[in-house]
Design goal:
The structure holds 2 protein chains of 2 kinds. By secondary structure, chain A is an alpha/beta fold. Helices cover 38% and strands 18% of the residues of chain A. The longest helix of chain A has 39 residues, at 134-172. The chains are: A alpha/beta, B alpha+beta.
């Protein structure tokens, strides 16, 4: 896939640590299905170590565990980059998206122009080998569906743009810009 | 009024914990300590699994230093199966490990520790981050850091399968030899890494050493403890990250003990405190004498400065010059100033880059014989490497089929835990007077342990990550009187 015009689906978490695996499992659920439409990545890295993962993609969906203690386990929050910096407990892994975006901008690196974050409230991200708790496990299919919706939406937007570009270029030039 | 200040969790660290600072009635610090959450169940989780899966499993415990766990696990399997890898396998392992050391040290110096020094401890908190570092050192150097790490991670991935979860260490060797093309990339990558190391050292000189205020801070009593130091050394008592003997020097810099990794548990044991899940390693031969320093306290340190203190020299020329500059500037060996860890980290970064270059240029690195197949019945294995954050030990016992019966990991932050506790307590006592503590002072308390680059991720088998900071002040009755949040 041409990375310069791509969609990234990034699941974050620790596969061994109970509920903390939720982001990875959502990504895994979508891996085959989205193979032609997005680059699906599972990562246990955190902070600025992730900057290379985001470099040169157009749009990104991030799925991560969150533990605020204020919502029931399994609750799904949907955020943009701007929101991430404002929530109280942004992430167990602190993807630090606003900071990453700022660094990328300062260094002139390409960073996704559109980013959506799905954070799943977790119960126990501390027990190795525990697997997902029941309520968090139940949320996996729903998060996956919402990630799919986001990507469908982005592709529909692009299709519109592409149609416009096509309409525009057919009258002026035989070349057509490819957006996706 | 006596009160408690809690810094929770600690910013910019890989992992999360909280600092409690208890104030006394006269407004001074009574005592201060770090408290860390626990990731439970590792031993149980490991039981019954195949020993040869441990390098992969342990590398998944934490996203911060997976290669260190992978390599410690692999070396433990060598010992478990009583198998000696062919020379090329050892050299490839060490070369890949050195690449990891360079990129990890670069990450810490610029992104995690850099804000304290490059930007400055008293700078407004909005600037004390990687953006502030880039602002200070310039865009080009910022790009250089990103590019250098990207190249090194590419090399590790090519050689080891994956950066985050390497799959190349096997008992008795590695899974595939190095191709001439990849060797050439390591030659080029190591040359870039050496230049990058020299650049980092120059930045340190320009920004930190030329600033008398910073040098005073580094050498101040608040950040000084006269403890023992532990590190892996080669046959000439030079720093080595991949293999060697373990050497301990006393607070005067004299050799106290040198021993094989297998004897580790004869010399190092654990102290437990009710307020921490983390166990505190100390030297058995000296004994536990509380959170104190000096020759009668078994408290010791690991990590970059400890490794330099525990060695007589560096194994490569540019790193050796940097090593000499550090000790001549700071008054000779050993250096007891915790904040000098940042400088030592750059000396090590250069050493790892130069060592990587030496190994890449060694014709034997291309030898296709990279595996000695184990034939012995497994029973018990111990393996040690120097992780970026200090000495890391894996210890497994198995049944005759090689299924894990017990698995214990002694991680760098656990080895450093007593000295870190000492550092937090001392910095808080020296720096904080009165409950009306400002952000800059709290940051200087955090700096006391940030210099160790502690990774609470695996120290408590907890999670990688960074979180916002919460400060809570409690009165003598334990009631919350003030709360500060730093997001």
């Amino acid at each position: 896939m041409d990375r310069a015009a791509s969609t990234l689906v990034l699941g974050l978490g620790n596969e061994l640590a109970g509920d903390d695996a939720v982001g990875l499992l959502v990504a895994r659920t979508l891996r085959d299905e989205l193979a032609d439409r997005a680059e699906v990545v599972e990562s246990s890295a955190s902070g600025l170590a992730l900057i290379e993962v985001f470099a040169d993609v157009d749009r990104a969906v991030v799925i991560d565990a969150i533990k605020t203690g204020r919502s029931p386990p399994g609750t799904i929050s949907e955020m943009t980059v701007a929101h991430v910096g404002r929530v109280l407990a942004p992430s167990l892994h602190h993807a630090g998206l606003p900071e990453l975006a700022a660094v990328a901008e300062r260094l002139g690196l390409r960073f996704p122009s559109q980013t959506r974050v799905f954070a799943v409230e977790v119960e126990d991200p501390y027990t190795l080998g525990a697997g997902l708790s029941e309520s968090v496990a139940r949320s996996v299919a729903e998060v996956a569906a919402r990630v799919r919706d986001v990507i469908d939406g982005w592709e529909a937007e692009n299709l519109e743009v592409e149609v416009e570009v096509t309409t525009c270029t057919t009258s002026t030039s035989p070349r057509r810009s490819s957006i996706t | 009024m006596s009160s408690e200040i809690v810094i929770d969790p600690i910013t910019r660290l890989e992992g999360h914990g909280r600092i409690h600072i208890f104030m006394n009635d006269s407004g001074d610090v009574d005592r201060a300590y770090l408290q860390i959450p626990e990731l439970r169940g590792f031993e149980k989780f490991a039981q019954g699994r195949r020993a040869e899966d441990m390098p992969q499993i342990t590398s998944r415990i934490c996203g911060v230093c997976p290669m260190a766990h992978h390599m410690a696990g692999t070396k433990t399997l060598d010992d478990l199966y009583r198998v000696d890898p062919p020379p090329a396998a050892k050299k490839v392992r060490e070369m890949v490990y050195d690449a990891f050391m360079v990129e990890d040290h670069a990450l810490h110096f610029f992104f995690l520790g850099g804000p304290d020094f490059v930007v400055g401890p008293a700078a407004p908190k909005a600037e004390r981050n990687i953006l502030g570092v880039i602002g200070k050192v310039g865009l080009e150097i910022g790009k250089e850091v990103i590019a250098a790490r990207k190249e090194l991670r590419g090399l590790i991935e090519e050689a080891a399968g994956k950066v985050i979860h390497p799959v190349f260490g096997l008992p008795g060797g590695i899974s595939k030899p190095i191709s001439p093309e990849l060797r050439d990339r390591f030659v080029a990558g190591s040359a870039h890494a050496v230049e990058f190391g020299k650049l980092a050292l120059q930045i340190f000189r320009d920004v930190v050493l030329s600033n008398a205020e910073y040098v005073d801070l580094v050498t101040s009593e608040a950040y000084t403890h006269r403890t023992y130091y532990l590190g892996l050394v080669d046959e000439l008592n030079r720093v080595n990250f991949y293999e060697g003997r373990l050497r301990i020097v006393d607070p005067n810099g004299n050799e106290f003990l040198t021993f094989d990794a297998k004897e580790y548990l004869d010399h190092v044991t654990e102290h437990v405190e009710p307020w921490s899940y983390l166990k505190f390693s100390y030297l058995k031969d000296v004994g536990w004498n509380g959170f104190t320093d000096g020759p009668d306290s078994g408290v010791f340190a690991v990590a970059p400065l400890a490794r330099l203190n525990a060695s007589d020299a560096m194994s490569t020329p540019i790193a050796q010059e940097a090593f000499e500059e550090l000790y001549s500037t700071l008054g000779g060996k050993p250096v007891h100033h915790t904040l000098a860890n940042h400088w030592a980290r750059i000396v090590e970064l250069i050493n790892a880059a130069e060592r990587m270059a030496e190994l890449a240029a060694d014709p034997e690195i291309l030898d296709p014989n990279v595996r000695t197949v184990p034939t012995e019945t497994p029973r018990e294995g111990i393996g040690v490497v120097e992780a970026p954050r200090g000495t890391l030990l894996h210890h497994y016992t198995t049944d005759e089929q090689g299924l894990i019966e017990t698995a214990n990991l002694i991680v760098a932050t656990q080895n450093n835990a007593a000295r870190i506790a000492l550092s937090v307590d001392k910095a808080a006592r020296e720096l904080i007077h009165g409950a009306n503590v400002d952000d800059g002072l709290l940051n200087q308390v955090e700096m006391a342990f940030r210099a160790y680059d502690p990774c609470f991720g695996c120290a408590t088998h907890s999670l990688p990550g960074q979180m916002p900071l919460i400060v809570q002040i409690h009165d003598p009755e334990g009631d919350l009187v003030r709360e500060l949040r730093r997001d």
